[in-house]
Each structure stands twice: as structure tokens, then as C-alpha cells.
Amino acid sequence: MSNPFHKLGGMQQKWINPLVKPYQHEIDSVDYLLQNGIYAVNGKYTAWRYADIAAFGCVILEHKYSRQHNDGSFLCRVKPRWHDNGIRGNIVMLCAEYDGRVERTFWDVNDAIFYLHNGELKKGIHYKPTKHAHATRDYGVSISRRMWREHIDRFDIIHDCLRNICTNMLTPENYHRYRLDFNNGNPAQEAEPVYTPIVQEQRQLSLL
User: Is residue 92 within 8 Å of residue 62, measured between CB atoms?
Assistant: First the structure.
């Protein structure tokens, strides 16, 4: 019988169980993406087992969620593995729940809001609607209400990322970057250029 546990890419000392049920707020966000025309599934059910959400089979989303605190602020804590390995994905989805509803925003992983002034990752992403955006030497760029509103339901960020990936797939020297090793659920970084089902699927999408 095969082992149901799979190693996380780049973290050989830890294991992930693909049979663990996702958090409810992740399930809700996947449903929300599907309702808005984004083909998405929880990463635990795909070859990208370390991912929170996988869109279109190759766009990886990190999902961060926070309820409103008593002072009106939101705080999404950064996982320790982000500091060890960086943000392993293309997009970060920040979700804020208040007054019985959830606002979902989409950010590129290289956005300044995730980094300190010295370039290191923050330990948490803080957002307070009543606070104006500013940058400090210690914390870096904070999120203002205007910035937050501008990133709500930015599905175009997902589509732009998909388009860039598909464009890269059209060049033979990049095929191996998206080849998947289905034995351990991780992208094969050192493989000969080869077509696989996911490459064929995304190449077809890019030609539509």
C-alpha cells in the first residue's frame, strides 16, 4: 500500500497528509472563485499538495484569513515556512470577515505589503480600515482602505498570471518547469523537457 503522506518540496523534515480536510474558509473561497469563473480546487487535492488553492491547474494561491478584532483591525499571520522558503506561490489571497460578510483581495507575491523595509518577509499582515497607508523604516508599507478596495475581486491578477505561465510554456526550454512528479506531488525542477497532461492542458488553454 502506498504511503498517504507526501514530502513538502524544499522541506524534507516535514510531511503533509493530502487526506486532511481543508479549513472551511478555504472551501468557501474556492466556491467563491468557481462562482466567478475561476477554475479552482484546494491544493490538498492536487499535485500541488503544499498549496492552499490551485487555480487553472498551475496558478498557486496562498490563502490568508482574519476575522475583525475588537479594535476594528485584521491580522493575517505569516507561516514560519514563508520565512524559511519564501512565499511558495504566485498570488496571496487576503480575506477579511466582518459584519457577517467576507471581502477577498488578491495580491502579487512581490507586493511591498508583504515585506519589511529591509526586504525580509513580515511576521504578519496588518490591515486597519481607518488607518492611512504609510511606510515606516521598521514595518514597511501598510495597507490603507483605498489599497484594500482596489484589490477586492481582482480576478484579472489570476488571469494575468495564467497568461504569463502559458506564454512561458510555449518555449521548449521551459517545458520542464511545469512538469509534475506525481510520485511526491512536487514540481520537477530537474527534468528533461517533456509534455505531461498539465502542460498539454495549459498549452491548449493558451491557444484559445
Answer: yes
